[in-house]
Amino acid sequence: MEGSDSVNRSEFILAIHIDDNFLNVVHLGRTANGLRLFASETVPLEEGLVKDGQIINTESVSQKIRHFVAHARPKPHKVVMLPSCTTVRLKPSEFPHQPKDQLQNLVEEQIREYTFFGNREIVFDYCVFAARNADTQTVLQAVTTRRVSDSYLAVARQAKLALVRITPAIMPIIKLMLDKSSPRIKDVSLLLAIESASGNISVYKNARPHLCQNLSIGVNDVLESQDGATSLAEKLKPVLEFAQSIADHDKLVLKVAAACSSARLSEIVSKIKSLFNDVEVGQINSTDIIKQLDIKGADNQHPPIFAFISALDHLDVYEFDGQLNLVSADSINRQKTRNEMSLLTKCIIAVILLSIAATYPIEMKLRTVEASSANIEEKITETIPMKRKVAGIKSRIKKLEENQAAYSAAYDMLTVIPWAQILRDIAENIPNDIRILDISSSVDSTNFLIIGQALAESNVYSFAKKLQKTDFIETAKVDEVEYSKDGAATLLNYKIACKTNPSGSNL
Q1: Residue spans per domain, the chain
Q2: CA-CA distances (angstroms) from residue 242 to 89, 255, 307, 459?
Q3: Cα(381)–Cα(284) distance, integer angstroms
Q4: CA angle 252-255-258, nearest 5°?
């Protein structure tokens, strides 16, 4: 009876974090005797399998996962996938308190205007941070491309795992920091999460996110590059200055989590402490969490931090409102259809084979079988190449038609959109203390991005509002703001996403 109770109460999960250099896997479970770490591994990835967080070779990556599964034997094969920090954009926004369905509609409306990934199809989700009795709530939006999402779905399918959800690698760490069961963060704190080749720095006040910024620097850069410490300081300094500007006291708290060993994490923390004496720097490591939660089976194991905390998050160790799942419903439905078609095909083949076996007696003469076989082979030899040729020609014709339509549409947009007037409107409305570094347009010219620098954030939003009132710009939204140091001055790097209005209906 005791054994039966233990089985009924058990729950297991695989958590997989993939960055440019490593595949990090954790197999964790909750049993009647508490949490247990069954297995964990950090597997090096050959160069080119993953680039800038994007999985290039899904089959090779899934093969490494299958190798881990063959040894760990997790049952059932449920998995949570964690894309690299560099592939996901996190954006905090303030919303008034309202019912969940209304909030979702507002978030979806705002996401539709998100143009950081250009014309690429995106998927998104969000988490809600709200204090009791507060008038507003902070929504942390997570956005990535459909291509990234589908590649992780493909890896799970090829590894024969049941995908539970896709969540940004940093999100479980945020949940750990803002866990409702731990003391609430009353003032300003920062979280630095570093992978092998990228990272993310985020600022929180009163347990709400105020800034989330991706970093193009990772563990390898910080520890192995000659100017690693200097590069890290340049990335962190503007963010620390922003955090200081909203803090109610002088001392900032910075927590560091890194996809590396405990020794290398301590080395990173030591470097940061030497760079910023006025910042209280601490580390988030799996060893401390194992002791705190009394996790069994973890002797002499140092599970990779991102995958480990994600597995704990799935087992509801941390109390938190909201979940993230960066996989589109269309992709899941398409995958289900593919699996169902595959099963149907196998069933049809089995029925055909059984029918053949029932129709022809075993005692059939050998020469009759040989004649029939030769007949069928001749027909196949004649028919299949011709069908392949026809299919190939049809495919090429379809592609040519699609290309012609795309080029025609692009040509039409380039000739219809009054770029001369749009550029004059930009020149007339730009404030004196804002400069433009670049203006880039989509292929069909329906969207364009203004990139530049400013001294104050309010001037950027004012500039965007003025542009939206012009004749040939339908919308102008501030897409991104990022602080940087230029000598003694702190500059604001901005991006304004604009949508053109060829008809000039704003008149």
Answers
A1: 58-330, 340-415, 419-500
A2: 19, 16, 30, 17
A3: 64
A4: 150
- Can you give the length of the chain in residues? 507
Number of H-type helices and E-type strands within the chain: 14, 19
- Both structure tokens of 413: 């947009």
- Name, in order, each residue with C-beta under 8 angstroms of 311's C-beta and a sequence gap of 6 or more: 13, 14, 15, 26, 27, 28, 80
Neighbouring C-beta atoms of residue 82, cutoff 10 Å: 28
For the domain made up of 419-500, the CATH class stated in words is alpha beta
Q: 207 by DSSP, 3-state: which?
A: coil
Please, are residues 315 and 35 in contact by the beta-carbon 8 Å criterion? yes
Q: Which two tokens stand for residue 483?
A: 């602080």
**Whole-number pLDDT of residue 397:** 72
Q: What is the pLDDT of residues 103-149, one digit of tens each?
A: 888 888 887 777 666 667 888 888 887 766 678 888 888 888 888 98
Whether the per-residue pLDDT at 324 is higher than 50: the answer is yes
Percent of the chain with pLDDT strictly greater than 70: 74
Beta bridge partners of 451: 438, 495
Three-state SS at 351: helix
What would the mean pLDDT of 271-281 be, rounded to a whole number? 90
Domain 58-330, what fold? Nucleotidyltransferase; domain 5 (3.30.420)
* 88 CB neighbour count, 10 Å cutoff: 27
Nearest-CA neighbor of 340 among 348, 351, 352? 348
Tokens representing residue 315 in the block: 């087992």
Do the Cβ atoms of 175 and 92 come closer than 8 Å? Answer: no
Main-chain phi, psi angles of 170, to 5 degrees: -80, -20
Per the listing, tokens 């803002």 go with 178
First to last CA, the chain: 78
